[in-house]
């Protein structure tokens, strides 16, 4: 009937408008969006993806997905994509994109499958990405800077340790033994690698303040006098004063200052810290 034909025409027009709206929404979205069919052929390739890849929509329509990926990682990426066709969806997965000019961009992707009305037959897969190349590069530069800082710090630690070793070989050997013992205890306590590294540095330098003590006192084989012992006791504070000006990710200077304090509140600094593990000076 005429009424039925009119209703069909209205529904068709509404569907066309909805389709055009969705197509424009995808086409001009700020994020790269791509859609592919079950055969991994590209069916939608929006403007943002053109900017990301350097390829045009006209060039990519109907093309296989694999042209978008670097040869080195192509096989692994296609396996991930194959899993999406079996129901897996991406919330955040990092996948590199090979640009037309050979440059590689890194992007984070999420995806979803679109099914026929039966809810089982796969119609297509849609994925949306975020270009994180600059962020990855910044993180890489930050990592290099941190590694350089670590090497600088390690060089400083070694130089200071060498000063002590030249002046007093006994103290140098003692520092190495304390370091090995402290790190072994830290590992048994399941402390993090960062904390163990802090302990290693502090152990290596804990007696650095002894460079302030006259050599004749350090090498005196007989029992030290009270005056000499009072001079020796200053080495924790001197070590702290030396190390406090050196930038470090750990409180090395404070550890050196407190390394003669004991859990019962006694120690060289007269019990100012009542919950500090003492270094076992007998080793």
From TrEMBL:
<dbReference type="InterPro" id="IPR013767">
    <property type="entry name" value="PAS_fold"/>
</dbReference>
<dbReference type="InterPro" id="IPR006675">
    <property type="entry name" value="HDIG_dom"/>
</dbReference>
<dbReference type="GO" id="GO:0006355">
    <property type="term" value="P:regulation of DNA-templated transcription"/>
</dbReference>
<dbReference type="InterPro" id="IPR003607">
    <property type="entry name" value="HD/PDEase_dom"/>
</dbReference>
<dbReference type="Pfam" id="PF00989">
    <property type="entry name" value="PAS"/>
</dbReference>
<feature type="domain" description="PAS">
    <location>
        <begin position="18"/>
        <end position="88"/>
    </location>
</feature>
<dbReference type="Pfam" id="PF13487">
    <property type="entry name" value="HD_5"/>
</dbReference>
<feature type="domain" description="PAC">
    <location>
        <begin position="91"/>
        <end position="144"/>
    </location>
</feature>
<feature type="domain" description="HD-GYP">
    <location>
        <begin position="149"/>
        <end position="283"/>
    </location>
</feature>
<dbReference type="InterPro" id="IPR000014">
    <property type="entry name" value="PAS"/>
</dbReference>
<dbReference type="InterPro" id="IPR035965">
    <property type="entry name" value="PAS-like_dom_sf"/>
</dbReference>
<dbReference type="InterPro" id="IPR000700">
    <property type="entry name" value="PAS-assoc_C"/>
</dbReference>
<dbReference type="InterPro" id="IPR037522">
    <property type="entry name" value="HD_GYP_dom"/>
</dbReference>
<protein>
    <recommendedName>
        <fullName>PAS domain S-box protein</fullName>
    </recommendedName>
</protein>
């Amino acid at each position: 009937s005429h009424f039925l034909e009119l209703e069909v025409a209205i529904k068709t027009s509404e569907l066309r408008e909805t389709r055009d709206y969705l197509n424009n929404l995808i086409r001009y979205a700020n994020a790269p969006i791509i859609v592919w069919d079950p055969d991994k052929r590209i069916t939608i390739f929006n403007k943002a993806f053109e900017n990301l890849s350097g390829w045009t929509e006209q060039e990519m329509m109907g093309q296989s997905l694999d042209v978008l990926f670097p040869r080195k990682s192509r096989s692994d990426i296609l396996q991930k994509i194959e899993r999406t066709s079996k129901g897996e969806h991406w919330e955040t997965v990092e996948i590199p994109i090979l640009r037309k000019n050979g440059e590689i961009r890194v992007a984070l992707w999420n995806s979803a499958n679109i099914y026929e009305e039966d809810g089982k037959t796969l119609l297509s897969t849609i994925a949306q990405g975020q270009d994180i190349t600059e962020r990855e590069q910044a993180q890489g530069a930050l990592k290099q800077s941190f590694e350089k800082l670590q090497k600088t710090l390690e060089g400083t630690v070694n130089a200071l340790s060498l000063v002590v070793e030249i002046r007093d070989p006994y103290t140098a050997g003692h520092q190495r033994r304390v370091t090995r013992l402290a790190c072994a205890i830290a590992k048994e306590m399941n402390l993090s690698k960062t904390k163990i590294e802090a302990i290693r540095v502090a152990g290596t330098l804990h007696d650095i303040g002894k460079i302030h003590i006259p050599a004749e006192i350090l090498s005196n084989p007989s029992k030290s006098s009270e005056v000499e012992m009072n001079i020796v006791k200053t080495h924790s504070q001197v070590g702290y004063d030396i190390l406090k000006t050196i930038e470090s990710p750990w409180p090395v200077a404070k550890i050196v200052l407190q390394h003669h304090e004991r859990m019962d509140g006694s120690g060289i600094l007269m019990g100012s810290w009542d919950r500090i593990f003492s270094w076992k000076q007998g080793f």
